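Module 6 notes. Inverse folding takes a fixed backbone as the condition and produces residue identities as the prediction. Think of it as a translation problem where the source language is geometry and the target language is the twenty amino acids. Below is one complete input and output pair. Work through it position by position during the lab.
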C-alpha cells in the first residue's frame, strides 16, 4: 500500500475502537460466568474474533452485532464448557492462546490449541512452566516450547508463582488456572503489568486480591454475567496522538480512551518529551478509567525510556520510536527485550524501518538509541505482517519527504480493521 505525505494538518474528533485486552477478556470471563454478559464497545478485530470462535467451539452461544460493536455472551459457569470437536485456532492472537491455556488446564476434556505461523513461533514455555507447576497436563506438540499446545485433564494445585517477566498474559493465564485449583493461587511479577484481568474478574464476582506486583485468586467462584462497557484502546489512540503531535497545526480530540494506570505509559513519555495532552472528562466504569484526550502539534525532545515504565507502554514502543526520530536530541530505550518475541522481532523491525526512512538509530540487545531530528524520507517498509509496525510507519509517512510503500499493510485487521479510513478522516488538505 502506498502512502503520500500530507500538506495540511490533522483536524477533528475520532472515537478509536474498543480496547483489545478488555474485549478479549469480556468474552472469556462472560463464557465462564452464569447468565448473560452484555458488552458494548467491543473490538471487532481478527484477534478478538479468534477468541469468540474458540468459545463457540466449546459450546458457548455468543451473539455479535459488528455494526453496533455489541456482543452478548450466554455463559454457562466455570464448569460449563464442552469439549471442542476440533482444534481451537487462535489465529494471530497471543492473548487468546496464553489466556485460554489457563482456562483449558482446568477442564475435564482434552484440547489442542494452535494459531497462524506467527503464533507457532512465539514462546509458550512461559505459560507451560507455571501451569505444569500447578499440576496441569500441557505440552508443546513439537517439543519446541511453541504452539500447537496439547492440554489434557488434570487436578490443579494453587501455587505462588514468581514470573521472570512482567507479562499480563502470563499473569492472567495463571490466575485463570487458579479458578480451578485446590487453594489460593498467587502471581508475583518483577514490575506491574496491565491489570485488566484482576479488575474484570472482580467485577464478575471472583475473589481477586492485588497488592502492588502481587495478585492472588481463590478457586471455584460463582461468576455472574455483567454489563461491560469497553473504552477506546489507548494502544490504537497512540497512532493518532503521535500523528497530531508530528503534523504541524494539528488538533485532534479522542473521546473515551482508556487510561488505566497500568497502560498509560505513553502519556508519561510524551510529558517527558516536552509534549502536552489535555486529559478531559475523566470517568470510571467497572474499575477502568477513561478520558477524552485533546492533542495538539508540538515540538518534542528526546528522553530515556526503561525500567518499570516499559510494561505500561510495551505495545506503543514502535510509534514512540517514530516520535523519537522526529524529536530534538537523543532518546534511549532500554529493558524492551520483550519486543523481540511479539508478532515480529519488533526491535529489529523498528530499527530497520527507521533507518530506511533516513533516521539515525542504533539497535541494542534490549532497545535502541535514536538520535532525532533528521528529516524522514519515503521508503519501502516491510510490515513483517505486524499490525503495529504497519500503523506506526503509516503515521511516519505523513511527514516523510516522498511516498512510502508498506508491504502487507492489510495486517492492521488484527487489531484495527478501519485504521486507514480513520486516519484519512482526520487529514485536511
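Target side of the pair, the amino acids:
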Amino acid at each position: 500500500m502506498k502512502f503520500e505525505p500530507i500538506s495540511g494538518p490533522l483536524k477533528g474528533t475520532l472515537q478509536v475502537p474498543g480496547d483489545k485486552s478488555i474485549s478479549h477478556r469480556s468474552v472469556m470471563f462472560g463464557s465462564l460466568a452464569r447468565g448473560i454478559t452484555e458488552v458494548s464497545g467491543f473490538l471487532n478485530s481478527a484477534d478478538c474474533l479468534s477468541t469468540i470462535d474458540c468459545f463457540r467451539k466449546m459450546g458457548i452461544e455468543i451473539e455479535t452485532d459488528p455494526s453496533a460493536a455489541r456482543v452478548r455472551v450466554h455463559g454457562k459457569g466455570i464448569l460449563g464448557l464442552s469439549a471442542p470437536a476440533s482444534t481451537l485456532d487462535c489465529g494471530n492472537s497471543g492473548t487468546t492462546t496464553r489466556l485460554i491455556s489457563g482456562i483449558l488446564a482446568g477442564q475435564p476434556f482434552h484440547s489442542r490449541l494452535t494459531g497462524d505461523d506467527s503464533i507457532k513461533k512465539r514462546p509458550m514455555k512461559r505459560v507451560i512452566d507455571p501451569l505444569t507447576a500447578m499440576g496441569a497436563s500441557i505440552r508443546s506438540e513439537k517439543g519446541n516450547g511453541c504452539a500447537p499446545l496439547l492440554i489434557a485433564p488434570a487436578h490443579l494445585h494453587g501455587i505462588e508463582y514468581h514470573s521472570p517477566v512482567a507479562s499480563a498474559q502470563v499473569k492472567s493465564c495463571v490466575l485463570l488456572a487458579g479458578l480451578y485449583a485446590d487453594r489460593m493461587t498467587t502471581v508475583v511479577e518483577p514490575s506491574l503489568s496491565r491489570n485488566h484481568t484482576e479488575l474484570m474478574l472482580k467485577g464478575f464476582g471472583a475473589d481477586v486480591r492485588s497488592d502492588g506486583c502481587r495478585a492472588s485468586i481463590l478457586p471455584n467462584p460463582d461468576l455472574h454475567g455483567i454489563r461491560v462497557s469497553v473504552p477506546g484502546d489507548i494502544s490504537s489512540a497512540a497512532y493518532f496522538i503521535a500523528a497530531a503531535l508530528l503534523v504541524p497545526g494539528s488538533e485532534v480530540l479522542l473521546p473515551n480512551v482508556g487510561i488505566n494506570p497500568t497502560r498509560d505509559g505513553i502519556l508519561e513519555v510524551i510529558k517527558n518529551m516536552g509534549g502536552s495532552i489535555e486529559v478531559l472528562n475523566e470517568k470510571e466504569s467497572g474499575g477502568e478509567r477513561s478520558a477524552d484526550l485533546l492533542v495538539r502539534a508540538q515540538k518534542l525532545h528526546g528522553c530515556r525510556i526503561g525500567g518499570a515504565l516499559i510494561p505500561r507502554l510495551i505495545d506503543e514502543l514502535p510509534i514512540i520510536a517514530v516520535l523519537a526520530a522526529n524529536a530534538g536530541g537523543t532518546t534511549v530505550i532500554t529493558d524492551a527485550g520483550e519486543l523481540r518475541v511479539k508478532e515480529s522481532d519488533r526491535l529489529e523491525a523498528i530499527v530497520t524501518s527507521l533507518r530506511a526512512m533516513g533516521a539515525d538509530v542504533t539497535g541494542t540487545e534490549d532497545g535502541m538509541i535514536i538520535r532525532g531530528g533528521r528529516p524522514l524520507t519515503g521508503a519501502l517498509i516491510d510490515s513483517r505482517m505486524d499490525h503495529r509496525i504497519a500503523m506506526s510507519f503509516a503515521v511516519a509517512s505523513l511527514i516523510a519527504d516522498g511516498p512510502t510503500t508498506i508491504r502487507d499493510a492489510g495486517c492492521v485487521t488484527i487489531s484495527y480493521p478501519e485504521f486507514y479510513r480513520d486516519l484519512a478522516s482526520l487529514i485536511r488538505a
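Reference fact for the lab report: The first helix runs from residue 20 to 32.
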